What we know:
The two termini are 28 Å apart. The protein has helices spanning 6-19, 41-46, 58-67, 103-109, 149-154, 157-160, 182-191, 243-255, 260-272, 278-290, and strands at residues 25-30, 49-54, 72-75, 78-79, 84-90, 118-127, 140-143, 165-171, 194-205, 223-233. It has a seven-stranded mixed sheet. It is an alpha/beta fold. The chain is globular and about 60 Å long. The protein is built from ten helices and ten strands. α1 packs antiparallel against α8 and α1 packs antiparallel against α10 (278-290). The model has no long low-confidence stretch (mean pLDDT 93).
Amino acid sequence: MARQPRxxxxxxxYLSKILDTERKTEIVDVGSNPMNTPDYLQMVNTGxxxxxxxxxxxxxxxKLKEQESEHERHLPYAIGDGKDSVLNVCHSPxxxxxxEPDPASFAYxxxxxxxxxxxxxxxxxxxxxxxxxxxxxxxLLKIDIQGGELTVFKHGKKKLKNALAxxxxxxxMPLYKDQxxxxxxxxxxxxxxxxxxxxxxxKQVPLGSGFDIPLPRDEVSSQLVDGDAIFIKDxxxxxxxxxxxxxxxxxxxxxxxxxxxLTVRCLAxxxxxxxxxxxxxxxxxxxxxETQPAE
Length: 295
């Protein structure tokens, strides 16, 4: 894995030291395809988090196993409702899904026609998140399985009950047939006690029309497609939170979500509980200043 900037590692190491958690932060990554650099990478590299990843595509799974560090383990399971399903392997691996691509959406977008083409299908058994004995703790569920996220939430309620955050890919328009979109994910996670914290990313693309529009690309990229959203357990009443959970949320907010205001909010709550001192918070803020890019 790539090295992190020294000052960022030092900041996370300091935060971990003052919080002094009883164990490493546990991250479960469903759909941990190695195409992208995970947002939690700096936590793994710093040695403050452990990852359990699930990736059913054989080639992707083998690559993950080759890159595995001492703080990672990967299993070749497809996570879903526990029933047999069919994996649709698309020309673009990033579009491979248990759902079928929706031709109408791709025609409307006028793009990714080749990428969404299904090259092969093969039967696949799925596992319910709640049935996985390999997961003892789950502080963060990171999930990106091309439209299957809602099914995992509905069949992972016991595991999610003790989770602190969910980082999920959300759809704004259906790229797959019968794909649940953002509103349905939000409704389910809200029922399970989570609140929307932020959008980490939102993809917008230009709509094809056969005409050239003489404007900058960002001004003609108006159609929302998908993105990544972060949900956290409702923090409006911090008295309901265990001290250890606040510590892990503070680490996730810094090392994965890049929500430093949330980290400081957690530290302020912990200060009221005499867990950290004001000087610790001020030193953390000084570390933040050091890691800001020079103007």
